[in-house]
Design brief:
The chain is an alpha/beta fold. Helices cover 25% and strands 19% of the residues. Helix 3 packs parallel to helix 4 and helix 12 runs antiparallel to helix 14. It starts with 13 loop residues before the first strand and ends in a 46-residue tail after the last strand.
Length: 616
């Protein structure tokens, strides 16, 4: 089924007279393609080189690159807006050794249980899958990734098992760099981001509620000595640290660092007012008032930071304008949380659990690709805060805080009051029925399958090659009712006392009617077992008849009756006589028939018959 979720190549590359593979430029889904070379990322072009004679209309690649081109089109990492996601951020932990005021309360936040977090083996497996599909850059984040004891081993395994991976980096608060950086470099670490909001030791202690500013600066200097060009991320907030803008510029005078100011994106959960944000233009004006020669630098197509520098300074500056000039249109980032949820947008509330899929028996890589592809295809054009007004902000109601290191504020997750969602953690959970009274529970459900006159005649005469449709679908329904808890994750495994399934053919309407009645003595209802039974029976009818015609309509899957629990349910006017759902077209009033249908052919067996639209 995963093949249905993959994009096929609409136009295959062709060879020109020089036996080189040619791809017309306009066929590219997005101007930014994943680089598949082994060159360092800093020197790598972002688009294919073009020859002078074909620069306007086509790009050429060696025939050895043909498979790489095909992989680009087939990857599940392309969303519905043509954005290819070649950058993956993986959170290794929710823990942090700081307590920054704008990030979490002094006592910390409620942490996820260890057995619900991704293991190092699961991290590596997911990373390998994403690299296979086209990810070329991985950043390990937290929480604080350096508090995880196996960080060096994870970096080493990522580099050793993924030759196509071009960069593995970390985002850290820098406290542990002097202890760990040499080992991380030996393991293959390519890049370092350090979160630092002040250059004043006293203010650092005030912000983080911890000492350690000197250790952070020593870690940055060690990174420079080891050949890195560390990025220093600073979240600017009005009246908080915006008086240090020029101090950070001076940090680049003698140090080869890339200082990046991040526009603060407030949420209702982090106790900051919306007017705390310092805009990109305000920062730029402040810097140019002191450094008139402050000049822009070229930016890559997927860069989130607008690069600048003061002429003659060793380092450079950058501005991450997530609020005032969002970069959603070129976003190539995906995120996996420490508990294994895939987030396609940092500011979105939608998450898909890859951990649960990984731990499900029989889950294959193709199944994971399907899950990832479905999530990526649902990615929105831009995040909720990127509206026409530069000062619009995301508001979130009930939430549980999750630390996302210096990503522009605290990400808040929105939870509903659904019965299968834990009100405290927001996670999917089974309903606790331990305190409920055991009673006799009964549920009835129905389904209807319109098959058309040709298939109906074959069913009636038991002439289908696959056998007796009514009997086999009846057996399938009984088996499905017993397996409901295996098919639907949050359903209880209930000992059923009775399963009765009726399947019948209505020759006048060319429909197969299915009715299931399920009983048990227990603490929870059996409506899901009844609905599963009729659904699987209907699918079985389809499977057995599809060789004759695919114009089969499954409809009216519904609960008919439910008794024995706290709430009972009875559907009115339920029977198998012609009703609004199953009466023939001739029994309708003229003004109820906006669709004109043609008569059927009368051949004994046909492979394609006119489809009769039904009123549902």
């Amino acid at each position: 089924m995963h093949q249905l979720l993959k994009r096929s190549i609409s136009v295959i590359s062709v060879k020109d007279s020089s036996k080189r593979w040619v791809l017309p430029t306009h066929q590219f889904i997005h101007t930014t393609r994943p680089s598949l070379s082994a060159e360092p990322s800093g020197n790598r072009p972002q688009s294919l080189d073009t020859t002078p004679s074909s620069a306007a209309t086509e790009s050429t690649v060696d025939s050895a690159d043909k498979d790489k081109q095909i992989m680009y089109y087939n990857t599940p990492l392309i969303d519905s807006f043509g954005r290819f996601h070649s950058y993956l951020r993986i959170s290794l932990t929710e823990r942090c050794n700081l307590r920054c005021k704008y990030c979490m309360p002094a006592e910390g936040v409620q942490l996820t249980k260890k057995d619900q977090l991704l293991t190092s083996a699961e991290v590596i497996r997911l990373a390998n899958l994403f690299v296979t599909e086209g990810v070329r850059k991985i950043r390990l984040t937290g929480g604080e990734p350096t508090v995880r004891k196996d960080l060096t081993e994870i970096v080493g395994q990522l580099k050793a098992t993924n030759p196509l991976l071009e960069s593995v980096g970390i985002t850290t608060n820098g406290l542990m760099l002097t202890r760990q950086l040499v080992g991380l470099q030996r393991a293959g670490l390519d890049a370092i981001n350090v979160s630092l909001d002040t250059l004043r030791a006293a203010r650092y202690e005030q912000i983080t509620r911890r000492k350690g500013w000197d250790r952070v600066m020593a870690g940055i200097d060690l990174a420079i000595q080891l050949g890195y060009r560390p990025k220093v991320n600073c979240v600017l907030m009005k009246g908080f640290n915006d008086d240090e803008i020029c101090d950070f510029v001076e940090l680049t005078r003698d140090r080869n660092v890339d200082v990046r100011f991040i526009e603060y994106m407030p949420f209702t959960g982090n106790r900051w007012d919306t007017d705390k944000m310092v805009s990109y233009r305000t920062m730029l004006d402040t810097i140019r008032a002191r450094y008139p020669a402050f000049e822009p630098l070229p930016n890559g197509p997927n860069d989130t930071s607008k690069a600048y520098r003061v002429p003659g300074y060793r380092g450079q500056m950058g501005f991450i304008t997530s609020m005032t000039e969002h970069f959603c249109g070129s976003c190539n980032r995906l995120r996996i949380t420490a508990d294994g949820n895939l987030k396609v947008c940092l500011f979105g509330n939608t998450e898909v659990s890859l951990r649960d899929a990984l731990r499900s028996p029989g889950c294959s890589e193709d199944d994971l690709r399907c899950l990832i592809s479905a999530a990526v295809k649902r990615k929105k054009k831009q995040h909720a805060g990127a509206s026409a007004l530069s000062t619009s902000f995301v508001q979130s109601a009930s939430h549980r805080p999750t630390t996302l290191a210096h990503a522009g504020g605290l990400q808040c997750r929105r939870y509903s009051s659904l019965s299968h969602v834990d009100e405290h953690t927001g996670r999917a959970t089974m309903v606790d029925v331990d305190d409920k009274v055991s009673t006799k529970r009964v549920a009835k459900a129905q389904a209807t399958v319109y098959v058309g006159p040709t298939i109906a005649a074959l069913i009636e005469n038991n002439e289908l090659k696959k056998g007796d449709v009514l009997s086999i679908s009846q057996m399938a329904a009984i088996v499905a009712a017993k397996k409901t808890s295996d098919l639907i994750p949050l359903c209880h495994n209930i000992p059923l006392s009775s399963i009765k399934v009726e399947t019948s053919l209505n020759s006048s309407t060319n429909e197969v009617h299915i009715l299931a009645k399920v009983k048990c003595d227990g603490k929870t209802g059996v409506e899901m077992e009844a609905l599963t039974a009729v659904s699987i029976a209907a699918l079985t009818v389809y499977d057995m008849c599809k060789a004759v015609s695919h114009e089969i309509l499954i409809k009216n899957i519904m609960l008919v009756e439910k008794t024995g629990g706290k709430s009972e349910f009875y559907r009115k006017q339920f029977n198998h006589e012609p009703t609004l759902e199953s009466r023939t077209m001739e029994s309708r009033e003229p003004d109820q028939m906006p669709i004109i249908t043609r008569g059927y052919r009368t051949d004994p067996i046909i492979t394609s018959e006119p489809f009769v639209p039904m009123y549902i």
